[in-house]
Amino acid sequence: MFVIEIDSSYYPCNSHNITAGISFSMKKKLQAFYKQFSGNDRVLVIINADPDAIASAMAVKRLLWRKVSGVSLSSINVIRRPDNIAMIRLLGIDMLYAEEVDAKKFNRFVMVDSQPNHNKIFAKFAPDVIIDHHPETDALAPFKDIRPDYGATASIMTEYLRAAKIKPSVKLATALFHAIKTDTNNFERQTRAEDIIAFQYVFRHANIYLARKIEKADLRLDFLKYFRIAFEGMRMRRGKVFAYLGTVANPDICVILADFFMRICSVKWSIVSGIYDNRLIVIFRNDGLRKDAGKTAKSGFGELGSAGGHKSMARAEIPLENIKEFIALGNDRTQLQWIIGRIEKKAEKTGTAFKKEILGLKS
Ligand SMILES: [Mn+2]
Question: Are 166 and 294 in the same domain?
Answer without folding.
Answer: no
